[in-house]
Design the sequence.
């Protein structure tokens, strides 16, 4: 591996500094976007557009909810800030690193994880929180100087083990690292210094991956996080509300103590982050890549992970968010609200998918809008949104591998609408889903059941097209045919968008049938990670 | 990033000024591209229609068109259509916006096929106030001629499209003068181009019952008779400037309100005279059972004085206060001999009409076998020369 290669992923990376002109350009673009949105709004809400009032209300709610989210994202980008300096941590802090192992996880992965942790330069103690009761895990922990804790049969999955381990240890600062993440030697140097501010409860860093090249799903799943672990969190940082989501967050023990320990929930990280903020702690987001982990490589594993996460986030929306709402700062209300509402995308997609079949069955359309007018009013917003989207990509932590249109991510997001919808239904019914650990290796050789709704949709679509054609050819009277011609085929055209995306999801799922078995961490050399600072 | 407050204000003002500039440029680009986008979408729609035409419509056995095969040469030549030897029958039914099935049911029940199908279209900016191209094309595909009543309601015009027009509630006063001045030419032109694209002639009735001061905003309560004449001539001028030659202009005053001459645009501007003959019976307090002669006969002299063919544009009777079967029989019996200029009759077959009475009334007679039988019987007795030869569906 060449150390100078701009695409080398085993190299410490940090986001670009934010300049005044960046803020100015983002303000110009956001304001222009807002004016265009007002323009569209004025046009949208006209009585002449209403055909069926309840449906128009639903359509408008979903559409404007989507636009509102876009506005929130733009506002958030106006706050993009990077900590001006990364303070050098004082010597002699007492630091623990927790990583967990559960039954079914391959011991070979821990060889790399624990070896990498042993290379982390700031003095610390690594603990392996094990529930496998497999002697091999103890062997590998001791090989790399980690303390092995036998924590089998505890309730609450990861959080249960973390809380037990907290009670068994005394270190003031705890980095909780997902076991598939390879830490860089300078990890703690990039986080501990921020705790000099007594009010800082946790420090979150970016999240990098090393297996995104393995498959369409892996690339798409990674793409979905690039904006979040870059401009989005930097914006939240600017507004004082960066959140701890995912692995690799460094906590202050006192922060845990103030909330009674790590939260036990499906979205345990999110709830922990919310509770710490609600207890009055500050947080820091440092946009650096000091670790790289795994994204799901096959559609099934990704869907499973997303189901669990979406269900957890809906729980947050219905339970934790309202509970803690009053204790949040203004921007924390916004950011946690935006995260909590995110998975309504499943319900929204379902609604938009149902418009054409509803029209074919009942003849009802939700609105009567001139499409050319919609295009002329909507295109400026799309152009500005794209410009902002592309502009903030300069603040991705590793633009050389992360920037782009992220179309794979979009196809995956769309294809998971049945999962998000299922999560919504489960949360409305207050049904639990069991804790499902995310697979660390690709599940190969079978088509995941999570692809079935997409296949059904595609069959349904093709069947509808044939049915519509034959109905028109033989049954629709000539005295009615022309009236519905453009609308019918327009609806089919609208459905083709969904069909194409659905097909993308099915192809992604089918990739698992021919994915080559490979252990992603096999050829990582943890001793060859560069922490050299690259001058830009 | 510490900034003094003046710099901050400049920073924000500058950003907003630039933002406005961007929005301005984008909206200019949007306005410029709206036309081409609309044209492209229209073209796409036309392509879909063409494809369905060739894949579906042209491959069907079109029984209705075959039944009107004798009318085909008439409807294709505007000069013949303007003054037919035969009496053309037609009907209107607005109960379903996007279908003529109800009218087809009616003609099946009368064992006939109407050469004229009548539709109504209001002026305005909304989608259903543009030229009814799909309805007109459907009528032509079905083998008939469209008869369009074009009503200059002006409330629905978008002031973004017509800057400077008065607020909607004030548009009634002087509305015809505005039309004559050319205020709404953009609308008229677009509508006229829709007419031009049709391959066959249409009957067009603009601003009907213009002499009735109670009913429509284009009446004399808001306008002078001369304004009506000027508006009519202006519209014709717009059509003429586009070389549109497939319109038969139907001028239709209300028979009860007189002053016909004052509203008459002139012989060279009118092709046909229209008259509405609706017997409300005792359904309304102001009404009684009127015979056909009382409604039409007394006016025939005045209407025939223009020397133009006459159309009964709305022909119907309610059922309360008399015998509807007899009413139709009486009317249809007299027509061939007594009223030689009467060349077309359009049944007003509306299930839910509330334009004049405070309650909703139904002009439907499809479910009234006695009325249907009288109509069939009387028309059968007309001399063959007045009837469009019809192939029976059973043949």
Sequence:
């Amino acid at each position: 591996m060449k150390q100078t290669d701009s695409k080398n992923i085993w190299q410490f990376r940090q986001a670009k500094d934010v300049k005044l002109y960046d803020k100015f350009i983002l303000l110009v673009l956001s304001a222009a976007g807002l004016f265009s949105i007002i323009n569209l709004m004025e046009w949208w809400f006209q009585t002449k557009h209403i055909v069926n009032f309840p449906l128009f209300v639903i359509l408008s709610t979903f559409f404007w909810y989507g636009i509102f989210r876009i506005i929130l994202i733009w506002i958030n980008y106006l706050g993009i800030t990077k900590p001006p300096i990364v303070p050098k941590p004082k010597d002699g802090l007492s630091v623990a690193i927790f990583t967990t192992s559960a039954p079914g996880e391959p011991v070979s992965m821990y060889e790399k994880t624990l070896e990498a942790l042993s290379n982390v330069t700031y003095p610390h103690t690594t603990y392996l929180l094990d529930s496998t009761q497999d002697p091999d895990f103890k062997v590998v922990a001791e090989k790399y100087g980690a303390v092995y804790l036998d924590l089998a049969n505890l309730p609450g999955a990861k959080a249960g083990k973390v809380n037990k381990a907290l009670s068994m240890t005394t270190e003031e600062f705890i980095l909780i690292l997902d076991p598939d993440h390879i830490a860089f030697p300078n990890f703690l140097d990039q986080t501990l210094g921020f705790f000099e501010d007594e009010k800082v409860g946790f420090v979150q860093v970016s999240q990098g991956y090393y297996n995104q090249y393995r498959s369409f799903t892996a690339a798409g799943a990674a793409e979905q996080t690039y904006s979040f672990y870059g401009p989005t969190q930097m914006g939240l940082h600017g507004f004082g509300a960066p959140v701890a989501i995912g692995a690799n967050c460094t906590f202050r023990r006192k922060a845990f103590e103030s909330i009674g320990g790590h939260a036990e929930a499906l979205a345990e990280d999110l709830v922990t982050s919310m509770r710490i903020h609600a207890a009055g702690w500050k947080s820091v987001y440092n946009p650096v890549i000091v670790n790289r982990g795994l994204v799901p490589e096959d559609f099934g594993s990704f869907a499973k992970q997303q189901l669990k996460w979406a269900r957890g986030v809906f729980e947050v929306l219905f339970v934790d968010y309202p509970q803690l709402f009053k204790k949040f700062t203004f921007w924390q209300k916004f950011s946690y609200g935006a995260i909590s509402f995110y998975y309504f995308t499943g319900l929204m997609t379902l609604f938009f998918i149902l418009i054409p079949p509803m029209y074919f069955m009942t003849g009802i359309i939700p609105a009567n809008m001139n499409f050319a007018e919609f295009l002329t009013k909507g295109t400026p917003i799309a152009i500005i949104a794209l410009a902002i989207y592309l502009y903030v990509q300069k603040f991705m932590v590793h633009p050389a591998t992360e920037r782009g249109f992220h179309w794979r991510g979009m196809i995956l997001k769309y294809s998971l609408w049945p999962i998000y919808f299922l999560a919504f239904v489960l949360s409305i019914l207050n049904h639990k889903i069991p804790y499902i650990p995310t697979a660390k290796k690709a599940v190969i050789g079978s088509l995941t059941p999570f692809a079935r709704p997409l296949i059904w949709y595609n069959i349904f679509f093709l069947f509808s097209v044939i049915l519509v054609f034959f109905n028109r050819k033989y049954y629709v009277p000539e005295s009615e045919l022309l009236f519905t011609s453009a609308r019918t085929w327009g609806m089919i055209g609208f459905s083709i968008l969904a069909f194409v995306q659905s097909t993308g999801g099915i192809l992604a799922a089918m990739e698992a049938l021919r994915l080559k078995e490979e252990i992603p961490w096999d050829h990582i050399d943890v001793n060859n990670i560069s922490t050299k600072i690259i001058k830009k | 990033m510490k900034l003094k407050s003046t710099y901050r204000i400049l920073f924000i003002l500058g950003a907003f000024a630039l933002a406005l500039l961007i929005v301005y440029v984008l909206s200019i680009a949007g306005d410029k591209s709206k036309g081409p986008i609309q044209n492209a979408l229209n073209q796409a729609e036309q392509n879909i229609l063409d494809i369905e035409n060739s894949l579906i419509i042209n491959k069907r056995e079109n029984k209705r068109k075959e039944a009107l095969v004798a009318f085909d040469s008439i409807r294709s030549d505007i000069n013949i259509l303007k003054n037919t030897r035969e009496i053309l029958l037609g009907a209107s039914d607005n109960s379903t916006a996007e279908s003529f099935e109800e009218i087809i049911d009616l003609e099946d029940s009368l064992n006939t096929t109407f050469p004229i199908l009548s539709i109504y279209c209001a002026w305005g900016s909304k989608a259903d106030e543009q030229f009814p191209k799909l309805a007109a094309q459907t009528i032509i595909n079905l083998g008939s001629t469209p008869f369009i009543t074009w009503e200059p309601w002006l409330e629905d015009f978008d002031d973004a499209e017509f800057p400077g027009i008065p607020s909607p509630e004030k548009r009634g006063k002087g509305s015809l003068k505005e039309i004559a001045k050319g205020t709404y030419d953009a609308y008229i032109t677009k509508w006229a181009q829709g007419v031009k694209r049709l391959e066959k002639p249409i009957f067009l009735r603009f601003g009907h019952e213009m002499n009735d001061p109670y009913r429509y905003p284009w009446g004399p309560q808001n306008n002078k008779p001369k304004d009506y004449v000027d508006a009519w001539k202006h519209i014709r001028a717009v059509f003429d400037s586009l070389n549109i030659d497939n319109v038969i202009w139907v001028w239709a005053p209300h028979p009860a309100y007189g002053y016909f001459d004052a509203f008459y645009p002139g012989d060279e501007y009118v092709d046909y005279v229209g008259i509405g003959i609706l017997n409300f019976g005792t359904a309304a307090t102001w009404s009684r059972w009127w015979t056909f002669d009382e409604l039409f006969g007394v006016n025939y002299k005045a209407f025939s004085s223009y020397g133009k063919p006459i159309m009964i544009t709305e022909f119907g009777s309610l059922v309360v206060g008399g015998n509807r079967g007899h009413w139709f029989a009486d009317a249809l019996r007299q027509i061939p001999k007594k009223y030689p200029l009467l060349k077309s009759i359009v049944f007003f077959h509306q299930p839910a009409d509330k334009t004049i009475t405070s309650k909703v009334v139904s002009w439907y007679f499809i479910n009234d076998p006695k009325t249907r039988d009288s109509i069939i019987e009387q028309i059968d007795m007309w001399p063959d020369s007045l009837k469009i030869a019809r192939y029976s569906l059973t043949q």
